[in-house]
Task: structure prediction
Amino acid sequence: QVRLQESGPGLLRPSETLSLTCSVSGDSVNSGSDYWTWIRQPPGEGLEWIGRIYHSGSAHYNPSFRTRATVSIDVSKNQFSLTLSSVTAADTAIYYCARHQYTYGTNWVDPWGQGTLVTVSS
Amino acid sequence: DIQMTPSPSSLSASVGDRVTITCRASGSISSFLSWYQQKPGKAPRLLIYDTSTLQSGVPSRFSGSVSGADFTLTISSLQPEDFATYFCHQTYSVPFTFGPGTRVDVK
Result:
């Protein structure tokens, strides 16, 4: 069974850099045609796709985050990471990592990690 | 960006009701539309992908369909555990986008 687990600091001050890691078990981040994805959800609000990475290092980003977000992958540790620079209170959210699976001509995002709350406050 | 617009934004229903939630895509997304259920404090749970394919382990009372640009999630007989928020998600073109969600609560 594939499991994803986010880790990282839960409290940041404005202008700092958010760094989160997603540890994957039960699957290899170096396998097949899967992408590894970051999604966030501000408290009480909807879901926002941030970006994703392939095991080759090829990444795609939401233009809303492109200048601030970087997704990286470490196949030796079976992990992938998100950094988001110059955070503000608007970046306060639950951050989820997830697998974006491609197979048989279709695709879907599943499973998801449990999510980690990141609060930006002075 | 492709915008996903749900209808309704919320609804009240009773156990046993047939519930229908729709998401309209602002552009072509082929069949790459998924539905998720989310309960407070939990990660979203995948219900349906590729418009109408039921994820393994999801009860058969959930189904998905499409008519033109309108993608529909139907719960044939609402159960107590189905009171939650439902999101649609297009995975056709980057940036992938979610609908704002439809909250289903108790009438």
Summary: DSSP finds no helices and eleven strands in chain B.
